[in-house]
Design a protein that fits this description.
Elements: H1 5-16, E1 26-32, H2 45-50, H3 59-67, E2 69-71, E3 74-75, H4 80-89, H5 105-108, H6 117-123, E4 127-133, E5 161-165, E6 178-182, E7 193-196, H7 226-248, E8 252-257, H8 289-313, E9 329-335, H9 343-348, H10 363-366, E10 370-373, H11 375-378, E11 388-390, E12 394-395, H12 399-407, H13 421-425, E13 436-440, E14 443-448, E15 451-456, E16 483-486, H14 502-514, E17 526-529, E18 536-537, E19 547-551, E20 554-559, E21 567-571, E22 575-578, E23 582-589, E24 592-595, E25 600-609, E26 614-630, E27 635-648, E28 651-655, E29 660-668, E30 671-675, E31 685-696, E32 702-705, E33 708-715, E34 718-723
Parallel strand pairs: 1-8, 1-9, 2-11, 3-12, 4-5, 4-8, 17-21, 18-22, 21-23, 22-24, 23-25, 24-26, 25-26, 26-27, 27-28, 27-29, 28-30, 29-31
Antiparallel strand pairs: 2-10, 5-6, 6-7, 9-10, 13-14, 14-15, 15-16, 19-20, 31-34, 32-33, 33-34
Length: 725
């Protein structure tokens, strides 16, 4: 049947809802350190309270969940450094430079070429701020820390307002004598300067709430509890930018990365009235000291979150909420990894009964509390209903592409994460991400749908003698150690199904190996740009830029040669020809790429045809485990095979002589053009596209070839044209 034009227009409209032309949301991202999955009301604490068992109080997070969505299957990483790297760059641990808590991560984890949340959102016109534990770029010296790698600083990655701790060891106290600040004095290296860790700016000023900080109490320490400083700096920013948003519609992105509730726990007791919130709770005195300290820490940061949420409701604090920006602000709450071992896990159910804890590949180590609230969209349009919980899988690597889509900004090429913006906004369709990957010490795991495979490693072999890293590639050959769990029926990972499902185990092991979890520490994706002549060969090494990552005289990575499966590559202009097979992690074509007969180009995560880009198939094939994306202004032309899902917002320039075959789903919202000479008479249909399924439609009803009009017709699995009389 011939599909009406309004169908294609409706798809275009939905996409436009998330474009730069639409009203873009502010984003407030609340991030905590080591908070177990079961530590919030909807994941178990509400039940504990109802049963009269000890519980941790998080009234503001509970209200956030009641007005938003609780993602029961939210995932972080196993430990701190990889979690922040994956969160910021959108790549999982197989591709991030920080795939474990390596002591050297502070010097090297985020590279100039890695585009972070701060990078993409600041370029998209957002005012950006970061407060809390960053973990990269500075030394661990407590009294005289230095900047060790300017490339990896928050200020080098788009964050404009900063109060941060740059080294994770310095973050192993809450009373650092100094913290790094931006904006900084003119010519300050890295745009950062050290300032005393003090609450002085927030004392004796009615603009700042006294609880939970207690900054006006005479016994408040001279060196501040750092999370109090982070929280009030974030509060200043949110108040200021909320007013600015009301005046000029300039959105803001605020990321508060608290150190709470990471150890050391006992330092909370240095604060006046540290346990004030639990003064009337009979169960509190019966808890172990560590559990009492942990409860006080979590409730303290919850109160700071309450101040930030109140600032969205009433930015200038005058009691009149007509200036509220709460409806237009996406609030995200998340932990970096699961909770650690300790009495709080046992006495308070902090990990919700999940197997394992921080550092583990099991659910207790990687599943994290995740809440999102966006009244303007979730309350109105979303398929998810406010105040409910969902089992939709959301990974920390999904947030960068989500924020990109909401901001109307292009996501970096080849990311592991997949945007959930269509789910939150209730517009469009979320793209498929088949699986999640995690690493931990000697183990790796893959989650696909309801099933999770855990793969141990064999004995490791030292490389280069004492003190050198073990060989990560020594994979256990004993298949009896492989574990397979059905997370839908067995979230506690008690029943190993590996022996019952050998074919599934084989499939998941093959996928896991392909995601680069066996490489040595310091392996990461690399970035390359086409520099070849017109019609240069895509496999010729000299046609690509080399990749070099070095700092302070140390070379961390150096790579040259022909394309590899971990390359994120761009052809920004000019033209390339594929006469031999080539493989990438992600490939963006902004110039031209011609794929000759019998040749395949594979981009594991994504092949993107950018605006003004041309991908020309001359009987060849393009492959991806996920999708081929033709952006507005881009063109996919010719005939051959697409082994992936195909999303076309640009032009499909198809042949009248031979159809394009897509071994996946096709989503259309662009236009169709035709080439070639039709060999049939008027009134006879010519097939131009065959696919597994087709949805959407072209914006044009007819296509013109040599002065002859062809009408466009659709079936669920094909597109044909018919010459008009």
């Amino acid at each position: 049947m011939k599909r009406p034009t309004f169908f294609a227009c409706s798809i275009t409209f939905l996409l436009a809802c998330l474009s730069l032309d639409a009203k873009r949301p502010n984003i407030l991202y609340l991030y905590v350190d080591d908070l177990g999955w079961g530590s919030i009301g909807p994941n178990g604490q509400a039940d504990r309270r109802a049963l009269g068992e000890p519980y941790v109080m998080t009234p503001n997070l509970d209200r956030l969940a009641a007005a938003g969505i609780n993602f029961r299957r939210g995932y972080g990483c196993t430990v701190c450094s990889p979690a922040r790297s994956s969160q910021q760059t959108g790549f999982h641990q197989g591709y991030t430079f920080a795939d474990r808590n390596d002591p050297d991560n502070a010097k090297k984890a985020i590279r100039t070429d890695d585009l972070t949340m701060g990078d993409v959102l600041s370029k998209a016109g957002y005012h950006t701020g970061y407060w809390g534990k960053w973990g990269y770029g500075g030394s661990k010296d407590m009294q005289n820390p230095t900047l060790d790698n300017l490339q990896t600083l928050p200020t080098s990655h788009g964050y404009q307002s900063v109060v941060a701790e740059l080294h994770h060891v310095r973050a192993h106290t809450f009373f650092q004598p100094t913290l790094w600040h931006a904006p900084a004095r003119p010519m300050a290296p890295g745009g950062l300067e050290l300032k005393p860790n003090s609450m002085a700016p927030y004392q004796n000023n009615k603009a700042y709430p006294d609880y939970p900080a207690g900054q006006n109490h005479p016994d408040y320490p001279k060196v501040a509890y750092c999370d109090d400083v982070y929280a009030f700096a974030a509060l200043d920013f949110v108040r200021r930018q909320a007013v600015r948003y009301r005046e000029s519609r300039e959105p803001f992105f605020a990321l508060f990365a608290a150190q709470i509730p990471h150890a050391p726990f006992a330092e909370i007791q240095k604060l006046p009235q540290w346990d004030k919130a639990y003064g009337d709770k009979a169960f509190f005195a019966k808890l172990s000291p560590q559990s009492r300290q942990w409860c006080a820490m979590v409730t303290r940061i919850d109160a700071h979150f309450g101040n930030l949420l109140a600032a969205l409701d009433d930015p200038n604090g005058d009691g009149d909420q007509s200036d509220s920006v709460a409806k237009e602000t996406l609030v995200v709450f998340q932990s970096d990894n699961g909770g650690p071992r300790g009495s709080n896990r046992e006495q308070l159910g902090a990990n919700g009964g999940l197997l394992g804890s921080k550092g583990s590949i099991y659910e207790g180590g990687i599943r994290v509390p995740t809440i999102m609230r966006w009244p303007e969209k979730i309350h109105r349009n979303s398929k998810l209903k406010a105040g409910t919980s969902t089992d939709l899988v959301v990974d920390c690597s999904d947030l960068l592409p989500t924020f990109c889509e909401l901001a109307g900004a292009p996501a970096p090429i080849g990311l592991s994460g997949v945007s959930i913006a269509p789910i939150l906004a209730g517009a469009g369709e979320r793209r498929v991400r088949e699986f999640l990957i995690h690493e931990a010490g000697g183990q790796a795991s893959i989650i696909r749908g309801r099933y999770k495979l855990v793969r141990p490693r064999g004995k490791t072999k030292a490389v280069g003698g004492k003190g050198k890293r073990p060989n990560k590639g020594a994979v256990a050959k004993d298949s009896s150690k492989i574990q397979l769990y059905d997370l839908e029926t067995d979230p506690g990972e008690k029943n190993n199904l590996a022996s019952q499902k050998p074919q599934l185990v084989k499939e998941l092991l093959l996928l896991l190996k392909g995601e680069r979890v066996d490489e040595e520490a310091g392996f990461a994706n690399t970035y390359h740009t086409w520099k070849g002549p017109d019609d240069g060969l895509i496999r010729q090494a000299s046609n690509w830029s080399d990749y070099l990552y070095e700092n302070a005289g140390i070379t961390y990575m150096k790579e040259s040669g022909s394309p590899q499966a971990h390359w994120c590559a761009r052809i920004p202009g000019g033209s390339a020809v594929a006469k031999e097979n080539a493989e990438f992690l992600g490939l963006e074509v902004g110039g031209a790429l011609t794929v000759r007969p019998g040749v395949s180009i594979r981009a594991r995560n994504e092949l993107r045809v950018a605006s003004k880009g041309q991908l020309i198939l001359q009987g060849g094939a393009i492959k991806s485990m996920r999708w081929v994306d033709v952006k507005p202004g881009g063109t996919l032309a010719g005939h051959g095979t697409v082994i992936a899902d195909l999303f076309s917002q640009g032009t499909l320039a198809l042949s009248l002589e031979e159809p394009l075959v897509v071994e996946g789903a096709v989503k259309l919202s662009g236009k169709l053009s035709l080439s070639g000479v039709g060999k049939v008479k008027s009134g006879k249909s010519i097939s131009v596209l065959k696919a597994k399924s087709i949805s959407g439609g072209f914006s044009n009803n007819d296509a013109l070839v040599d002065g002859k009009k062809y009408a466009i017709f659709y079936t669920p699995t094909g597109i044909s044209v018919r010459a008009k009389q």
